[in-house]
Amino acid sequence: MQSTMQRSFAAGELAPALHARADQVKYTTGLRRCRNMIVRREGGVENRAGLRFVEALKDATDDHWLLRYEGVEEGESILIEAGNGYLRFYQDGARLEVSGVVAYNGATAYVQGDLASSGGVNYYAKAATTGNAPPNATYWYPLTGVIYEIPHGFGAHQFNWVQSGNVITLTHGEAPPAELVYSAPTSWIIRPITTAPSMPAPANLVVAQGTPGPGSLIASYVVTAAKAETYEESLVSNTDTTTGAPQLGTAIAPNVLTWDAVPGAVEYYVYADNAQNGKFGYIGTAPSNSFNDTGLVPDVAITPPIARVLFAGAGSYPNNAAYYQQRRFFARTGLVPDGIWSSRIGFPSNFAISSPLQDDDALTFRLMGNKQNAIQALLGLKSLIVLTTAGEWSVGIPKQALTPSDIPTDQETYLGAHDKKPVAVGNGILYIQARGSIVNELKYDQQVEGLAGRDLTVFASHLFEGYTLNRIDYAQTPQACLWAPRGDGTLLGLTYLPEQDVWGWHRHDTGAAGVFEDVCVVAEEGGDVAYFIVKRTINGSDVRYLERLETRFIREDHFAEDAFFVDSGLTYNGTPANVISGLEHLEGERVAILADGAVISDGSSATYVVTAGAVTLPADAEVVHVGLPIAYAEMELLDLDVAGSSLRDKVKRVGAVTVLLHKSARTFTAGPTDEDLSPYELQEYDEVADLFTGQVSINLTSRFNDYGRVLIRQTDPLPLTVLGVIPMLELGG
C-alpha cells in the first residue's frame, strides 16, 4: 500500500473533457465534484455557510431584482429590493421600517419624500403638495404597514444602475432615466434626469442705452449665472438689444445692463453681439446683477452654453450609464444603439455645448465598427470600457482627457458581451460574454498594448454548456468569490484571485426546490455579504425569499452561536426552550437543527417537520439554528493519475484515506462512491462541537476499480474545511 497526496483544490470542479489531462496543473489541483463547497483562497475547500432567511419579497412574481447603495462608512451600505413599480430597503440583514410617522396636516407644505399617516395608513409623498390629502394617488403612495417603500417609474423593467456619491443613476431603454437619491436609510427620492445646467438662467435682462452718438452698430446682449462653489454656468437669459440711434457703449456713456439676481449665483457672464449676426461673444464678468458695456469687443471664441434636450421621448431613452473622468455617460437608445453621450466635466446633468466647441463641453459620438455594436454596458477603468454585442472597446487614452475634438475609440476584442451588469475586480473586469454562457476576464495587457480577454469557464465548461447566467457579483472578502446564479436555478461560484492566477468553480443548490434567481453583494461590517433572491416551493406554493449568505467565521468559544449551516434558516437565542416558533416561511418542510452546538436533525427525519410555524425539540436549548438541510456539501477527487506514469491503466483500491482538516467538526463520511460511504468514528473523548485542526484517517469500504476516487461528504449542519487528502492506495495489474 502506498500513499499519494492532493495538497490543493484551487482549480475547483473540472469538466469531464479534462479528466484525461493529468499533464495540466489544473488537474493536480482540481476536483471531479465540488458541490455546496467553496474553494478557499489558500487552496483548500470548505462547506458553504447557510442562507439566513431575511424576508419574503413583496409578492411571489418573478419581477424582482436587487441593487445596492454603498455607504460612506463601514456598515452604512443598503440592499435594495426592486419590484414592479416599487423599492424596499434592507440594512445589515434587516428590512428598514418607519416609526413615529406624523398625521397628515392639510396646512403643511409637503415635499417629495415626506411621510404622513392618514386613516391608519402610512403614505410616502410622491410630489410636493399642500392640501391634497391621502389617498390622492397623484401625490401619495401607500406603504404596507411600517415597511419603508417608495415607488419608481420603470414598471417591471429591470433597470440598470450605477452609483456616484449619494446618487444612483437608473436607466432602461423603455423609460426616461432617473436618479435615486439617498438622504438617510428611510429617506429617499427618485427624480427625473434633465440634461440642462442646474443653475437657473437670469431673467428680465434690460439694456439702458448710453447717450446716442455717431455709429452704425446695434448691440444685443445675453447674461448667464455662475453657481457658487462649482461655477457651473447657466443657460442664457432673455436677449435685449439697444434701441434708438445705433450706438455702442462708450466709457463716458456706457450701455448699462441690469437683470434679476439669481439665488446662489457667485457671478455673472455677459455676452454681446454687436454685428447682429446671431453670434454672441464674451465681453466680461459681473460680480452682481448689473454691468456697464463701454464698447467692449466680444470674444467669439468664448460663447454662451447651448442647451440640448436629450432622452426626452420613446426611442431616445438610454439603457446604460457610467461615470468616467468627472463626466456622466449614457449609452444606447432605441434609435441609436451604438451611441454615447456624456455630460460636461464636473456636472453630471449638464449636457450643454458651446460654439465653437470647448474641451469641457458635453460629448456625443457613435462607435464605428465592422458590425452592429449595440452597447451592453459601460465601465470606467484606465479608459472608458464599452462592452457591445460585437466586441469590447476602449474609449480614451489612460491619463489623457477626453474632449469633443479628441475621442479615440479602439475595438480591443471581438468577443461580445451580454447585457448583464459587469463587475470590476482589481484592475480588470469580469463580464458575461455574448450568448450568456461564458464568464470572461478583460484586463490591460502590456504584451498586446491594450485589453486582453480570457475565458474563465474553459476548465469547467460542463457547468455552462446549455445554460445561461442570470447575473454575476463579486465578494472580495472573505473568500474572493464571484457568484453567478444560472438560468436553471443552480448557483455557481468562482473563487478568483487574479494576482495569484487562482480561479476555481464550485456549484451550489438548496432545498425546497430552491432556485437562485439573483445575487447582490453588499459591503457590511466585517466583509462582503452576498444576498440572493431564492424561489422555493413551500407547502405546495411558490414563494420568493430574500436570503443572506452567512459568514463561516466561528469565534472562539462561540460555536453554538456561530455555526450556521442551514438554508432559509433562522436562529433562536434566548432562555431555554424546546418549542421553536416563527418558522411559518418553512411550513411543512423537514428541517435540520443545531441546538446548543449539537445536531438534533440533519433534515432527513420526518420527526422534525415545521407544523403551525414551529418545531419541537427533545430538550430545552438556548441557541438553536433551524432551516432547510444543505444536502449535501461534498467533494470528490479526480481519477488517480500522474503524467508520465502508468498509473492510469492499473486497477486501484483506496482502502483508507487521511484528511487534513482545519477548524472542522469531525462528522463527515468518505468512500469511493456515493453508495459506499463510511463515517469518521468519533472517539469517546472527541467533542462534536470542537473546532478540530489536524489530520484524521478513515478505513473505507472499497474494491479494486479503474479510478481510485475519493468522495468526502458532510451531511450534518456543521463546519468542514479540507486542506488536503491522502488516499492510501493499492495497485493491481
Summarize the structure.
The protein is mainly beta and 733 residues long. The protein contains two helices and 55 strands.
Question: Can you give a write-up of this model?
Answer:
The chain is an all-beta fold. The chain is 1% helix and 43% strand. It is built from 2 helices and 55 strands. The strands form 12 sheets. It has an 8-stranded mixed beta sheet, with no helix packed on it. Strands 1, 4, 5, 50, 53 and 55 form a 6-stranded antiparallel beta sheet that branches. Strand 15 (160-164) and strand 16 form a beta hairpin. The mean pLDDT is 93.
Write the layout of secondary structure elements.
Blueprint lengths: L1 E2 L8 E2 L11 H4 L1 E6 L1 E3 L5 E3 L3 E6 L7 E6 L8 E6 L2 E6 L2 E2 L19 E4 L2 E5 L14 E3 L6 E3 L8 E5 L2 E6 L2 E10 L2 E6 L13 E3 L11 E8 L12 E2 L13 E4 L6 E9 L7 E6 L3 E4 L26 E5 L2 E5 L7 E4 L20 E4 L8 E6 L3 E5 L3 E4 L13 E5 L9 E3 L2 E5 L6 E7 L4 E6 L17 E3 L5 E5 L5 E7 L4 E7 L6 E10 L2 E12 L2 E9 L9 H4 L4 E14 L11 E4 L2 E5 L12 E14 L4 E5 L14 E13 L4 E3 L6 E2 L12 E8 L11 E4 L6 E11 L2
Parallel strand pairs: 2-3, 6-45
Antiparallel strand pairs: 1-55, 3-49, 4-5, 5-55, 6-44, 7-8, 8-9, 9-10, 9-14, 11-12, 12-13, 15-16, 16-17, 17-18, 19-22, 20-21, 20-23, 22-25, 23-24, 26-27, 27-28, 28-29, 30-31, 31-32, 32-33, 34-35, 35-36, 36-37, 38-39, 39-40, 40-41, 42-43, 43-44, 45-48, 46-47, 46-48, 49-54, 50-53, 50-55, 51-52, ...
